[in-house]
Structures are given as C-alpha cells and as structure tokens.
Write a structure and sequence with these properties.
By secondary structure, the chain is α+β, with helices and mostly antiparallel strands. 26% of the residues lie in helices and 29% in strands. A hairpin with a 3-residue loop joins strand 10 and strand 11.
C-alpha cells in the first residue's frame, strides 16, 4: 500500500526542484582544511569521519569512513578513485575513444564485442527497461540532445522531429548476444547513453572493491544524488547499528531537509528536473524526458529510490520520475526490496505544500521531518 504525508514546509518556484541528498552524513561536524591524500583526492577530517573526494562523471565523488577505523582507508580510496576514472573512460559518450562511443559508431554495421562487466550492465539496463515498460531506456539520449539538454541550452523542438527521433529509441533496437558478449543495433541512428545508470554502477563497483580491501563500514556518493552505505556509522566511538543517516532535502529549497533515511548495506538514488530546464511561453520544461513520448516529464518534483544496488536506484529514480503513481505502486508491489519516496507539488503556483508518497518503507527505514 502507498502512504501519504503532506509536509507543511513551503516551496518556491524558479528554484531547484530537487535538492538531492542534503548533508551527506548528518553527523559530520565542521571539517578542517583539505589536505592532499590518495591519488589526487582530498581528505577532510571531522570529529568522527574521514572524507575523501575527487571530481568524476561531471560531479564530485566522496568517500566517508569512521575516523581511525581502517588504517588502509587512504590507499583503498586511491584504488576506488582509480576505478571510477577507468569506468568513466569506458562509459562516457563525451570521449571518442570510450568503449560506448565506439559501440555507438559501429554496432549498426556489425555486432561489437564489449567487456564482460559492461555487457552485464547493458543486460541489467535492458531488464529494467522491460520491467518499467520503457520508462527507463539507455537509448533515449538522442531525445536529450534534440531538446538541447545535452548541450545545456534547452530548446523546444517541433513534433515531427520528436517523432523522428523516437524511431531510434527503444530497447527493441538493441540486440544483446550473451553467448558472444556482443551488441548490435537493428536501426541506424541508435545510440546508447549510460548517464542514467553509469554513476550508480560505478558506486556499486567501488563498494565491491572496498569490501575486497577489507573495508566494510563506509558511505560513498556521487554528486549527492547517488549514495551507497555499508555497515555502520560510528559517533563518539559508538556504532549506530541502524547504519548511516542520510538526509533528503526539499525538492525546491535544498537547505531544508524533508526526511532522514537510515541506510545499512543499501543504496539510494534521487531524480528531479529542477536544476536543469528552460521556459517557453511561460511553461517550464525539465531535462528528464519520458522515452515513451519524447516529452519532458513534469508530474513530480522528485523521486527517490532505496534498494541494495546503486545502479538500480539510479535507473529506477529516473524511470519513476516519468511514470504514474499507479505504475510506481505496481512496480514496488512486485519488487518488495525496492522502496520509493515521491515528492509532489505545484511549483508554478509560487508557494504550496510538498506531499510525500512512499512505498515499501517502514518507520525503521526512515522518518519524516
């Protein structure tokens, strides 16, 4: 069953529609000045945490450890950030030499063999595309380009161009050969873009690497909109057995927190279009496009997903943003390990209430503020 809670904090139009995750960890105190550490990353220390960060994938990746718990935290962070760089170089569409860019250039002409874990990621994306009935689709990047969001210069295309672009969008255009680990396109003009799942995938891979390095209590996030927490957060040498407290900010007023989640061996992803969009004839168009229609979605202010996988959270947060409440409820009913929070409101009204609707979350998982 879905649950509703109207939060009395008000929002303002014209501001960011999603604040992503506010205050990556609630217990962080004022940090001391940055000092250089593992492989070009930077470390900050609070009373209870070590924090390492570096730019990657058009955001800031950050790792947090309990202070003095793991002597190998710095070296492990170096390995993680090196892995993130490798994965970005493999998956980005903004570098001609990347594996995805080469795939996009060649897959219509002949099947292209790809690295085994990248192939598994494409299989996962295809499974999510099927489960969400096309609401998540890694071939929808051409729509973002058509609307100008890829260049961050939004524009309103005509309907004919939208329909022509939709001819190259959809999982049915992509053939995955599991035996040969190859990818091919049935239609010319098809392009794969992993922007909706790649960051979460990098976080999942990073968490696996940290466990291999013997680190089992940590939090890692990319740009605050994608986070994974393992084990427990210690405060004054006392472990919080509920895991790590993660704050969810107001969709439009990011300085206001709406809720706190307690994540232990779980990930969280959130999506919203408040920070990217444009106005045309008084109507705002956000950057998250429904791949089934070719038009930006504007049903919700933000969608947040909790599950064991950061890649799944990223993909579903994007999918849920373009789906209806009934579709989200149906998905969560069939996937009980997936929790979701949907923020609803009308920013065009100037001021109003944010309503929270949630699925598969108990009072032990989170609390509203």
């Amino acid at each position: 069953m879905k649950n509703r809670s109207t939060n009395r904090r008000q929002f303002l139009s014209g501001r960011a529609a999603v604040g992503a995750i506010s205050d990556a960890i609630n217990s962080v105190s004022a940090p001391i000045p940055d000092t250089a550490t593992a492989r070009g990353s930077h470390q900050r220390q609070s009373a209870y945490l070590e924090q390492y960060s570096k730019p990657a994938m058009a955001c800031q990746f950050e790792l947090l450890f309990n202070m003095h718990q793991y002597p190998q935290s710095g070296s492990a962070t170096g390995e993680v950030f090196a892995l993130v760089d490798q994965l970005e170089d493999q998956m980005t569409v903004y570098r001609d030499h990347s594996e995805i860019s080469q795939l996009n250039r060649r897959a219509y002409e002949a099947p292209v063999k790809v690295e085994s874990r990248l192939f598994e990621l494409l299989q996962t994306a295809a499974e999510i595309q099927t489960a969400t009935r096309g609401a998540f689709d890694v071939t929808s990047g051409q729509l973002s380009k058509l609307w100008g969001f890829e260049q961050r210069s939004g524009k309103l295309p005509d309907e004919e161009k939208i329909q022509n672009t939709l001819k190259c969008v959809g999982g049915g255009h992509v053939v995955l050969n599991e035996t040969l680990q190859t990818v091919s396109f049935k239609t010319p003009g098809v392009k794969i873009n992993l922007g909706g799942i790649g960051k979460g995938y990098a976080i999942d891979r990073s968490a696996w690497l940290l466990h291999i390095e013997g680190v089992h209590d940590f939090a890692i996030h990319g740009g605050q909109s994608s986070v994974l927490c393992a084990g427990n957060n210690a405060n004054e040498n006392k472990a919080d057995l509920r895991g790590w407290p993660i704050g969810l900010s107001h969709p439009v007023l990011p300085e206001i927190r709406l809720a706190t989640f307690h994540l232990k061996d779980q990930a969280l992803g959130t999506s919203g279009s408040g920070r990217q969009g444009f106005f045309h004839d008084g109507k705002r168009y956000g950057h998250i496009i429904d791949p089934r229609t070719g038009w930006p979605a504007d049903r919700f202010l933000s969608t947040t997903v909790i599950s064991p996988s950061a890649a799944l959270c990223d993909a579903l947060a994007t999918a849920f943003y373009v789906m209806t409440i009934e579709e989200i409820e149906g998905y969560c009913r069939q996937h009980t390990d997936v929790g979701a929070v949907v923020a609803i409101g009308d920013p065009s009204a100037g001021r109003g209430d944010v309503e929270l609707i949630w699925f598969n979350l108990s009072d032990d998982d989170w609390h509203r503020l």
